[in-house]
Write a structure and sequence with these properties.
Length: 562
């Protein structure tokens, strides 16, 4: 547990006893380098239980060692045996070397295999000749690294750093340079990136595989001859063998010199999976990320991304047929847990519950929201849900075999409308409507898919727009004071030029037409009433027969004992 301690950071160890935490006061220590000086500092730490020197659990942390933030650090504190004897001295990044860490803002750290990975954003030294620029980075460190000798005493010898490339490809790629959060599933890192907040705001989610990270770390290094020189790849002949980043314990003097004077920056950036973002959104600053994989067992991904204005986006990555093709991403829904637009600083997904932390409170929301989806496509955009074609409702899909889910929709052979239509039938009903002259009628849009924006109504292929034809807020068409000239075929077209409603309207104007219409309606009422009476008679017969056969009828006394 960390405390800022009024600019005197303290790290406590807690022990869980009888469902309560107890502070081990004898183990409390100086938290410099582990805990932040300022609550708003972006720091990270991870407890690594295996693979460390001496087989001891160890804490790896990224932060700063002074309150003016002039000495950023990635460190592993001293490791002690159970008898409190020192096993291994602390190891850290080089002091006062901005070529290793330059004003970093840490967002995450992970234990994977033989290495610990740190993700952060920092001022890019390789860009400073052209101004100030923020780049996203990943650092890899070997767990068995105990530091070197001479000037590398208690200094990482396996430290290597690479840029993360999250961008929309093109002749002039659009870069999302500032990583805000990162999440690990298996051997894939999912990063949340933004553009610079001083420019046009946009956010993106990019994926990076472990193999792509290793490919960059085993590529050429980048450096400059002098302070004013261009940054260029370092020739392989100048790189010592074994090269930095290798988890070897033996270092040559050539390696010591290379590490001490080099930036240990890789020339090639880490490539994003599929060559493009999994999702991006303009005019939105997302800053926290949680990921759930394989909710439905069909290879899906669900991203929960929280913005600086208190909005939580639920994003569904519809899996592609081939592992080499990117998924299609859709915003399933948005949650607005707060009324005042407060920023969300922490987010944790546990089971079906998402926990959100702000400066004022902690709240929880249920991520299963199937009941809010009124259309088939919106329901299928959520892998937690499925469409019940019998009841025309969106319900929970897990454990329900009779519902239609996204996995039943073939988007590779058909477009979305055609694919859904093959499963649920017609997406709208062509209805014939008959009304009396002088009355009014409402033609509703009951399309089974979501209709964004407003629709355009036509009568016999001509757009209707006069005082008697009113477009309601729900896109229904209200026609008042009906006349014979209002007869025809009415069609509603959405922005995609899809037919979302269709009616054949006829107007009854003669006395005979009106009488025939009411006689037909009267006959329907009579038939319905006759069916009702038959049901009543059948129920009475069954009830009487049941009462006559019951032995209890002889046991219940009558009034006055009769």
């Amino acid at each position: 547990m960390c405390t800022t301690g009024a600019y005197q950071p303290i790290a406590y160890q807690l022990r869980l006893e009888n469902r309560r935490f107890r502070i081990l006061s004898e183990d409390s220590e100086n938290g410099v380098g582990i805990c932040p000086y300022d609550p708003s500092d972006n720091t990270t730490a991870i407890l690594v239980e295996r693979g460390n020197p001496g087989g001891l659990p160890a804490l790896y942390a990224g932060g700063v060692t002074d309150f003016i933030k002039a000495d950023p650090i990635i460190m592993r504190p001293d490791l002690y045996n159970l008898n409190n004897t020192l096993q291994v001295r602390y190891v850290r990044t080089l002091r006062d070397r901005n070529k290793w860490l330059n004003e970093p803002q840490f967002v995450g750290s992970f234990d994977l295999g033989d290495h610990v990975y740190f993700f952060f954003r920092e001022v890019a030294l390789e860009y400073t000749n052209c101004g100030k620029k923020i780049y996203s980075r990943v650092v890899r460190i070997c767990k068995n690294d105990q530091g070197g000798q001479f000037i590398l005493r208690s200094v990482w010898t396996s430290f290597v750093k690479a840029r993360l490339n999250c961008s929309i490809p093109g002749e002039y790629p659009y870069y999302f340079d500032e990583i805000q959060d990162v999440f690990l599933i298996g051997e894939t890192f999912y990063g949340l990136f933004t553009t610079n907040i001083n420019g046009l705001t946009a956010s993106a989610i990019c994926a990076f595989t472990l193999s792509d990270l290793n490919k960059a770390f085993w590529g050429p290094f980048k450096g400059q001859e002098s302070k004013n020189s261009n940054w260029l790849p370092i020739p392989e002949v100048e790189v010592p063998n074994p090269r930095p980043g290798n988890c070897t314990k033996q270092l040559s003097m050539q390696a010591v010199n290379f590490i001490s004077r080099s930036e240990l920056l890789m020339d090639k950036a880490v490539s994003q999976q599929f060559g493009r973002p999994l999702f991006y959104q303009g005019n939105c600053l997302l800053q926290k990320l949680s990921v759930r994989a394989d909710v439905s067992g069909q290879g899906d991904l669900v991203f929960f991304a929280a913005s600086n204005t208190g909005v939580v986006y639920k994003i569904f990555a519809w899996p592609s047929r081939s592992s080499s093709d990117p998924p299609r991403s859709y915003v399933s829904t948005t949650y607005l847990p707060f009324d005042d637009g407060r920023p969300i600083w922490t987010m944790l997904l546990r089971g079906q519950t998402l926990f959100l932390g702000t400066d004022q409170s902690v709240v929880q929301i249920n991520v299963e929201t199937c009941h809010v989806y009124l259309n088939v496509d919106l329901c299928l955009y959520d892998p937690y849900c499925g469409w019940d074609a019998k009841t025309n409702e969106c319900v929970k899909a897990i454990g329900n075999r009779r519902v239609i889910t996204f996995a039943d929709i073939d988007l590779f052979s058909h477009d979305l409308e055609q694919a859904i239509q093959l499963k649920v039938g017609d997406l709208y009903k062509y209805e014939k409507v008959s009304k009396i002259s002088g009355s009014s009628v409402t033609l509703k849009v009951e399309y089974k898919l979501h209709v964004p924006g407003t629709v355009t109504w036509t009568r016999n292929n001509t757009v209707v727009s006069d005082e008697r034809h009113i477009l309601a807020q729900d896109n229904s068409l209200i026609i008042t004071d009906l006349r014979k000239s209002d007869e025809g075929v009415y069609v509603a077209l959405d922005r995609k030029k899809r037919t979302v409603a269709k009616y054949l309207l006829s107007i009854e104007t003669t006395k005979e037409q009106i009488e025939q219409r009411w006689m037909k309606k009267f006959d329907q009422w009579c038939d319905e009433f006759e069916r009702y009476q038959n049901d009543i008679r059948q129920w009475e017969q069954k009830c009487n027969a049941c009462c006559e056969e019951s032995p209890l009828s002889n046991m219940v006394p009558g009034i006055d004992g009769k």
